[in-house]
Specification:
Length: about 625
């Protein structure tokens, strides 16, 4: 949600900013802009040139070509995902009041009262954004000589979340930044420096970076980088080195990131397994998640959003089945406000690809404040959730750029299965030999996923049957229900087809009234212990005219006339039914992907969506 980039160094700033913004496109945006200190303006009162527009970066590039690119070596850029005020040229960032120019990610919750205060002081506003207020407040507190003090005074007044990139007109070739609740990192190159919402924005130039913590301020000029706390005291920061390489953050010949990321799944599952399996069994003692701790847990909560929450539903079925511990799966935006009954006997698992999702961060803080043990399952190293939780398991999906989460979900469920096995063993519910057998089965998943990818034509065919439909349903029971939820979300977010997922047995309690002639019902039917029940539900919708698309194991036979299209996964006894979601979800991802492409949609950047939801 919104992308920030800033640069100071020897390169053409506008080019670096545009390149960085392109790398942040995945975050979702509807307008963009840059502000650059003109190179001949290196004395106080210098010129800052701003170019901004509604629309995608192509519109920015066209505008820069038409109006002339600002020439300089220091500036800030932004992609905006509209919250306050429609996407328009005027609401796009950067915002300026003449002396101060800013880009902002987040939401200023008290902007109305600040606007009133500033209006009384004679400020006027041109946009409908909350962000413009920040530029004016900075100006109000700026005495002409001390930018750091102006920032310190300003942030004292702000409520909500923000990452800010700031230029002061009187301080040419200086970039300032601060943050609270929205991510911001500082890239440290060779005599060149960056600020950014995420690593890919500067990965091409440097892998070294520091993470700005909440309330910290960074001041950057050609001489280097200085960090300060909220009181203006200098702080020393740890330097991290990104373990992603530039290829991982590029399409590498694939038409879309989403397809590339689907194809990467067998490898990232293997890599993730290797990082958590020792001597053939899952071992989390290195992060403090010991058998003793697992034995003492009375309840588990899995708290997350969207796809990560769906991974939690798979975890619930697996942990309850094997470890016999009650598991509640909670949507983070609900959990944080529902005054949950959670305490020191509980383990709260926060699942997140980005590690920066605002509601999940707030849920983590709440769980900690109630004394619960917290475990993060997070893909982005050093992200807020990874750093905030008591314990963290890193999934090794590598950078996930497409908005629709695929490989991150795959490794989330991989880790959560392994955790379920260890949980069950620690509590004496399964023997070590069974834990070993199950772990060996997990290692069979990459091959099974590869097989689904090799047979992608079948998913393409199903996509061709869905391309013109307006509404459809996914149904399933148990693990198949968890998969239905994820398959449905994937499909609707990138195809804009209305899709709903139901526990197969629940449909006749209301929703079956929506079933009409030829409405597709994608039935996930991999769980053999309840197959007969699922088949009954298929028959019910078939009798009302639905077109049944069944996703099942090889060898599954349905009575003649029940199923219209079958997708039989080539999976035998190498995967227990409990683990079959691993390859099955890949088929559902491919169906969503091909349907999106056939509908002429860019699956990497679906409308209205942002990759990291850093505001609530
Ligand atoms: O970064 P997170 O895993 O915390 O993100 C959670 C959701 O926003 C995310 O999974 C979202 O639902 C995806 N777009 C789904 O594909």
């Amino acid at each position: 949600m919104c992308g920030i980039v800033g640069y100071i160094g020897g390169r053409d700033c506008a080019d670096v900013l545009m390149d960085g913004l392109e790398k942040l496109e995945y975050r979702g945006y509807d307008s963009a802009g840059i502000a650059v200190f003109e190179k001949n303006a290196r004395s106080p009162g210098g010129t800052i040139s701003t170019v901004k527009t509604r629309g995608k970066l192509k519109c920015m590039a066209d505008k820069l070509a038409a109006e002339g690119k600002p020439e300089g070596f220091c500036g800030i850029g932004h992609t905006r995902w509209a919250t306050h005020g429609e996407p328009s040229d005027i609401n796009s960032h950067p915002h300026s009041n003449g002396r101060v120019t800013i880009v902002h990610n987040g939401i200023i919750e008290n902007y109305t009262e600040l606007k009133e205060f500033l209006s009384e002081k004679g400020y006027s506003f041109v946009s409908q954004t909350d962000s413009e207020i920040v530029a004016c407040l900075l100006d109000f507190y700026f005495d002409g000589s001390d930018p750091l003090r102006a920032i310190m005074e300003t942030v004292k007044e702000l409520r909500g979340s923000y990452a800010l990139g700031i230029l002061f007109k009187d301080f040419p070739d200086h970039v300032y930044a601060t943050r609270k609740g929205s991510p911001l990192i500082v890239g440290l190159g060779d005599s060149e420096y960056f600020i950014a919402s995420d690593i890919p924005a500067f990965l091409k130039y440097t892998k070294d970076y520091a993470i700005l913590d909440d309330d910290e301020i960074v001041a950057i000029d050609n001489g280097g980088v200085k960090f300060f706390d909220v009181h203006g005291i200098a702080v020393k920061k740890q330097i991290h080195t990104a373990d992603w390489d530039i290829e991982q953050a590029q399409k590498c010949g694939y038409p879309h990131y989403m397809l590339k990321e689907i194809y990467e799944q067998p490898d990232v599952v293997e890599k993730t397994l290797d990082s958590i399996i020792t001597d053939g069994v899952p071992d989390f003692s290195g992060i403090g998640l010991t058998d003793e701790l697992l034995r003492g847990v009375k309840r588990v909560f899995v708290v997350a959003c969207g796809t990560a929450m769906h991974a939690g539903i798979v975890a619930r079925y697996a942990v309850e089945k094997l470890a016999r511990v009650p598991v509640a799966v909670e949507i983070a935006s609900e959990f944080r406000y529902m005054d949950p009954i959670v305490g020191e006997d509980d383990l709260v698992i926060l699942v997140s690809q980005s590690g920066e999702t605002a509601d999940t961060i707030a849920s983590l803080e709440l769980a900690k404040s109630r004394g619960a043990k917290t475990l993060a399952v997070v893909n982005v190293k050093y992200s807020a959730i990874a750093r905030g939780a008591d314990m963290c398991i890193h999934t090794l999906a590598g950078p996930e750029i497409a908005v629709a989460s695929t490989k991150a979900y795959m490794v989330q469920i991989t880790v959560l299965y392994a955790l379920a096995f260890r949980f069950a063993y620690a509590r004496g519910n399964i023997l070590e030999s069974e834990m070993k057998r199950l772990t060996a089965q997990l290692y069979n998943a990459p091959k099974a996923i590869r097989d689904v990818i090799d047979n992608k034509d079948e998913c393409q065919f199903i996509a061709s049957q869905l391309v013109n439909v307006e509404t459809l349903f996914f149904i399933g029971r148990g693990f198949d229900y968890a998969l239905s939820l994820e398959g449905s979300l994937k499909l609707k977010e990138i195809t804009y087809i209305h899709s709903e997922a139901y526990a197969a047995g629940e449909l006749k309690h209301g929703t079956i009234s929506l079933i009409e002639h030829n409405i597709p019902v994608i039935t996930v039917a991999t769980q053999r212990n309840i197959l007969a029940k699922t088949v009954s539900n298929m028959e019910e919708v078939k009798a009302r005219g639905a077109t049944i698309i069944a996703v099942c194991r090889k060898g599954t036979e349905f009575a003649e006339g029940t199923v219209d299209i079958e997708l039989k996964l080539n999976i035998g006894d190498e995967l227990d039914d409990m683990l079959i979601p691993l390859p099955t979800v890949c088929a559902l991802q491919l169906i969503a992907y091909y349907t999106s492409v056939l509908r002429g949609i860019d699956p990497d950047k679906p409308r209205n969506l942002a990759k990291s939801v850093t505001t609530e």
